[in-house]
Design brief:
The protein is α/β, with parallel strands linked by helices. It has helices at 21-35, 51-62, 99-109, 113-128, 137-153, and strands at 4-10, 41-49, 70-74, 76-77, 80-81, 89-98. The protein is 43% helix and 21% strand.
Length: 166
Amino acid sequence: MSKLKVYVKNDQTEVKVPVGIRLLIRRCCQAVLTTEGFEHNAEVSVSFISNKEIRNLNKVYRNKDKETDVLSFPLMTDGKPEEIDENDFVMLGDVVISLETAVKQAAMYGHSLEREVGFLTVHSMLHLLGYDHEKSPLEERIMREKEEAVLEKLGISRDSTFVNEG
């Protein structure tokens, strides 16, 4: 099995990072690589940032002046490694997540924050591997099916993570 380095960094103060979320992110990253048959050692960076910062990044890199939940910055071209470091690790890229938006979306969709962060991580990892749901409806469907398959393997599928209204 290939090695995986996941660097998780908190660069925001708006939302307290829940216990266990870093492990969840690592598990999600590994599950995507395993499911996709990625055979290289890999490295990925995940940062939690504020809504203000993610809006700024979205404006600068995607020309969309609005907040979003997650952004991916792949370092591979057409799903092929561009850069391999001296220890044979492929740098997949960077993921930035707005925990503020993740909290809002979890409440809106009626599921746990863990499910939301897991989904955003899996979604971004697929982007880092070259998938793009904005290319076509077919690409979007393929990506959604892959996301749900990985989340189901991790036990955080749609069906198992809804918050019960007591």
